[in-house]
Specification:
Blueprint (H helix, E strand, L loop, with lengths): L41 E3 L1 E2 L2 E17 L2 E5 L5 E6 L6 E2 L4 E5 L2 H34 L7 H34 L1 E3 L4 E6 L6 E2 L4 E7 L3 E8 H4 L7 E5 L5 E9 L9 E7 L13 E17 L4 E3 L2 E7 L5 E5 L2 E5 L2 E4 L9 E2 L12 E3 L2
Parallel strand pairs: 1-23
Antiparallel strand pairs: 2-22, 3-12, 3-16, 4-11, 5-7, 5-10, 6-9, 7-8, 9-11, 12-15, 13-14, 13-16, 14-15, 16-21, 17-18, 18-19, 20-21
Length: 365
């Protein structure tokens, strides 16, 4: 450190005499140093906005349901279930036997109906012979007109009784067929109430069946958005696990709920979705409307301050400036900026959350 010598003259005055004494004194003072240069607040990385084609989508929530669910019931009543051949989750084919009722009483009714039919046929055979004889003798006048009419009428009555007995036998055989409960369509069993040993009434539900294994997504949309949806439109459904399933709009509901002003959109799901989606699941999906150009920045660069979405821009003097922005759609780790933003702007990415407006930063690759 250098010292500068400075001379100071001091005049002393004493009582009763005037004298002058010059005194040389030295004072040592340090030399002043120039101000230090400002240091960067922190090191950051930057990125420039990108123009990309971004798809237009409308998000909605909804429930997965069966396309159609068939109720399989008992077509015969008062009989005991002896077999239940399927369970919930089983795949079945159209016409497959699902359950069997005890058929002993029905078989007895069939035997009785067959006996009645044979008796009717015997009576009809005799009546036909009498009628044929009357027709042969009637022209000669051997028999009276009254007897002729009686024999012909007896023949017609006997034939009618044969037809009645045949119909009764057919009904009884149908009852025998109904002792086997068959699947009305191919699909998967979604519920089962049938149990061996139970006696059920006519029409009681035994099984429920998801027809054709077809599922659909029923999305809830506000009435103002329903008119944007068209049949055949593509839909992307995202599961909680992150897996995605593609669907297609089948139709929109013709009515809107008067309470919440929402309507249903029915979306067909592919067969491959069977292993991922189950009826009753609540999932989120997006309707696609094509693509438009969008200005994207990394989502990491977005800072929320005082309730506003903001970005830090690095100026030529390496100082940051806070800019309020409006955001739109998201794509991966990028987010759309819908407000004005220069394409050549240097947007702070890493370290943006720790800066304040006007900070001096150091930019690294």
């Amino acid at each position: 450190m250098q010292f500068i010598q400075r001379r100071t003259w001091v005049r002393l005055t004493g009582c009763g005499a005037i004298g002058a004494l010059s005194l040389l004194a030295t004072a040592q003072q340090p030399e002043s140093k120039p101000a230090a240069a400002a240091k960067p607040a922190m090191t950051v990385t930057v990125a420039q906005p990108q123009n990309q084609q971004l798809s237009q989508r409308l998000s909605a929530n909804g429930t997965v349901a069966a396309w159609q669910e068939a109720s399989v019931g008992a077509e015969i009543g008062g009989l005991r279930l002896t077999q239940v051949r399927v369970n919930v989750g089983d795949q079945v084919k159209a016409g497959q036997v699902l359950a069997v009722f005890a058929n002993e009483s029905v078989l007895a009714e069939i035997n009785q109906a067959k006996a009645a039919l044979n008796e009717a046929k015997a009576v009809a055979s005799e009546a036909q012979a009498n009628a044929d004889r009357a027709r042969a003798l009637q022209p000669s006048g051997v028999i009276s007109a009254q007897q002729y009419n009686k024999d012909v009428t007896a023949e017609a009555t006997a034939k009618a009784r044969v037809e009645s007995a045949q119909a009764n036998l057919a009904v009884t055989e149908l009852r025998l067929h109904q002792t086997q409960v068959r699947s009305p369509d191919s699909g998967v069993i979604s519920s089962r109430t049938a149990s061996v040993g139970s006696v059920v009434g006519l029409g009681s539900e035994l099984f429920r069946l998801i027809r054709g294994n077809r599922l659909e997504w029923r999305a809830d949309l506000v009435s103002s958005e329903l008119f944007r949806i068209k049949p055949g439109q593509k839909v992307r459904i995202t599961l909680a696990s992150g897996a995605e399933v593609s669907g297609q709009v089948r139709l929109t509901a013709p009515t809107v709920d008067a309470q919440n002003r929402t309507g249903l959109v029915y979306v067909d799901l592919p067969a491959a979705a069977q292993g991922l989606l189950k009826p009753g699941m609540f999932v989120r999906g997006e309707f696609e409307f094509g693509s438009t150009k969008a200005l994207l920045v990394p989502q990491q660069s977005l800072v929320v301050r005082d309730g506003f979405q903001q970005l830090y821009l690095v100026g030529p003097d390496q100082r940051v400036k806070l800019l309020k922005v409006s955001v739109g759609r998201r794509q991966g780790d990028m987010i759309e900026i819908t407000s004005a933003l220069p394409l050549q702007a240097n947007v702070v990415v890493r370290g943006a959350g720790f800066l304040t407006n006007g900070d001096l930063v150091k930019v690294v690759p």
